[in-house]
C-alpha cells in the first residue's frame, strides 16, 4: 500500500488514532500552560514529523487539522502554540498547506504553523539534540519504521514537559527484525545490543509471545532513556484477529500517563469488570461477549493485600505506586479498596463515606501470615 492510497479514506482505526492524539494534546496543553506560565515561559509545541496531507480524500481531517482545530478555540493556545509539521511527500505538503490556508480561523495563531519537507533521519535528530526545546508533544507516525529511532524519541523526551506518541507498526517491525536488509533501521529503533538479543529471543516464540516480547523490549528501551511511563494501545486487523499496529505513549511524568490511560481506556473496544482492553478489536466491537472471561477487579483486591502487606498508605499513594504497567484506572483502585474495607480485610481512616473512597484516606494492610 502506498502512502497515497493510505490517505484515500479514513478508517475507524485512523479515526481512533487521531482522537487519541488530539484528546491527549488538549489535556496535556492545559496542564503545561499553567506550569509554563508560572515558570515565565510563553510557548509550547506540537511536532508531527509525518504529517500527511491534512485531509483524507473523504474530507475527514487528519491529526494536524484536529489538533489545530481544538487549539484555535483556546486563547492561551492561540497565543502560545508553536505547531511544526513535516512531510516528505511534496504532494502531501501542498495538500496540507492548502488545508491550513483555507481555514481562516488558523490566522489567529500568534505563531503561524510551520510546514517542512524533509526525510526524517539523522539530520533532523541532530538539530533536535542541539537545542533545548520548549515543552513539546511529539507525534511520530511513519508509514513503516524508517526514521523512527531511540535517538529521535530521546531528543524530545529529554526536555522538560515533553511527551511522545508513536505509531508502532508491528505488522512491519515483527518481520523486519529478522530481515538483514533493514537491520540498520531495527538497530536504530531498539538499540543494536537490545535488537540482537531480541532476535535471538524471538527464534522459538509463538506469535502471541513474539508480540509480548517485542513490546517488552521497546518499553524497556524507552524506559532506559528516562521514559518511565509507557502505554500501548493495540489495533487488530479488520479482517482477522492479528495485530496491525500499536499506538505507544512515552512520558517522564505520572500525570501525563494518567491522562493518556483514561483516554485510551475510553477508546477500548471491550472490558472485563470495567477494566479496559486497551485495544481496538472490530470483532469485540461488533460481537461483544455476554459473559466475562476473567475477573480482574477480584484479582486486584488479592494483589493489593499481597503487595502492600504490613504497610499503611493513602489511597492516592497506593494508586500511583501500583497502577504503573497495569491496566487499572483510579476508579478501580477506589472500588477495590472500598470492597476490602467493607469485608474487614483492611482498615481505613477516616472511615470512607458510602460508595466513595477519597484520595486522602489512609489504608492499613494486615501483615502476611507465614
Description:
This protein is α/β, with parallel strands linked by helices. The protein has two domains: 3-286, Rossmann fold, CATH 3.40.50; 296-364, Arc Repressor Mutant, subunit A (Orthogonal Bundle). It is built from 16 helices and 13 strands. It has an eight-stranded mixed beta sheet, sandwiched between helices. It has a three-stranded antiparallel beta sheet with strand order 11-13-12. A two-stranded antiparallel sheet has the order 8-9. Helix 2 packs across helix 3, helix 9 (183-190) crosses helix 10 (192-202) and helix 10 runs antiparallel to helix 11. The longest helix is centred in the first third of the chain and has 27 residues, at 12-38. It is globular. The termini are far apart. Mean pLDDT is 92; it is low at 1-9 and 289-293.
Written as H for each helix and E for each strand, in order along the chain, the element string is HHEHHEHEHEHEHHHHEEHEEEHHEHHEE
Query: What's the arrangement of strands in the largest beta sheet?
Result: 3-2-1-4-5-7-6-10
Q: Can you identify the CATH class of the largest domain?
A: Alpha Beta
Coarse shape: globular
Largest beta-sheet details: 8 strands, mixed
User: pLDDT under 50 segments (min length 5)?
Assistant: 1-9, 289-293
Tell me the β content: 15-25%
The figure for the number of domains is: 2
Question: Judging by the overall fold, what is the CATH architecture of the largest domain?
Answer: 3-Layer(aba) Sandwich
The total of helices stands at: 16
Evaluate the radius of gyration.
22 Å
Number of strands: 13
Alpha-carbon distance between the termini?
A: 60 Å
**What name is given to the CATH topology of the largest domain?**
Rossmann fold
CATH superfamily of the largest domain: Vaccinia Virus protein VP39
Helix percentage range: 40-55%
Kindly state the mean pLDDT as a whole number? 92
Amino acid at each position: 500500500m502506498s502512502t497515497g492510497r493510505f490517505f484515500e479514506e479514513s478508517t475507524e482505526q485512523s479515526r481512533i488514532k487521531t482522537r487519541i492524539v488530539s484528546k491527549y494534546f488538549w489535556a496535556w496543553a492545559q496542564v503545561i500552560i499553567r506550569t509554563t506560565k508560572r515558570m515565565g515561559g510563553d510557548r509550547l509545541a506540537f511536532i508531527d514529523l509525518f504529517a500527511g496531507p491534512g485531509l483524507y480524500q473523504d474530507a475527514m481531517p487528519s491529526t494536524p487539522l484536529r489538533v489545530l482545530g481544538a487549539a484555535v478555540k483556546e486563547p492561551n493556545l492561540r497565543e502560545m502554540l508553536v505547531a511544526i509539521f513535516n512531510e516528505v511527500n511534496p504532494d502531501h505538503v501542498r495538500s496540507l498547506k492548502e488545508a491550513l490556508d483555507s481555514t481562516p480561523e488558523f490566522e489567529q495563531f500568534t505563531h503561524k504553523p510551520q510546514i517542512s519537507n524533509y526525510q526524517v533521519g539523522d539530520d533532523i535528530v541532530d538539530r533536535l539534540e542541539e537545542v533545548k526545546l520548549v515543552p513539546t508533544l511529539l507525534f511520530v507516525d511513519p508509514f513503516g519504521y524508517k526514521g523512527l529511532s531511540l535517538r529521535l524519541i530521546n531528543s524530545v523526551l529529554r526536555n522538560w514537559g515533553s511527551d511522545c506518541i508513536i505509531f508502532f507498526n508491528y505488522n512491519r517491525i515483527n518481520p523486519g527484525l529478522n530481515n538483514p536488509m533493514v537491520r540498520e533501521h531495527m538497530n536504530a529503533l531498539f538499540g543494536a545490543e537490545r535488537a540482537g538479543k531480541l532476535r535471538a529471543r524471538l527464534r522459538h516464540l509463538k506469535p502471541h509471545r513474539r508480540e509480548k516480547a517485542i513490546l517488552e523490549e521497546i518499553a524497556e528501551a524507552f524506559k532506559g532513556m528516562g521514559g518511565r511511563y509507557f502505554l500501548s494501545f493495540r489495533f487488530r486487523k479488520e479482517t482477522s484477529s492479528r495485530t496491525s499496529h500499536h499506538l505507544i505513549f512515552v512520558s517522564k511524568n505520572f500525570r501525563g500517563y494518567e491522562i493518556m490511560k483514561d483516554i485510551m481506556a475510553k477508546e477500548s473496544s471491550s472490558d472485563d469488570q470495567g477494566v479496559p482492553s486497551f485495544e481496538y478489536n472490530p470483532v469485540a466491537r461488533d460481537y461483544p461477549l455476554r459473559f466475562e472471561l476473567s475477573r480482574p477487579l477480584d484479582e486486584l483486591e488479592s494483589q493489593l493485600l499481597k503487595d502492600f502487606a504490613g504497610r499503611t498508605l493513602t489511597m492516592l499513594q497506593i494508586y500511583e505506586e501500583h497502577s504503573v504497567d497495569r491496566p487499572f484506572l483510579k476508579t478501580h483502585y477506589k472500588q477495590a479498596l472500598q470492597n476490602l474495607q467493607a469485608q474487614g480485610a483492611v482498615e481505613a481512616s477516616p472511615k470512607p463515606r458510602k460508595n466513595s473512597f477519597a484520595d486522602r484516606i489512609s489504608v492499613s494492610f494486615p501483615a502476611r501470615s507465614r
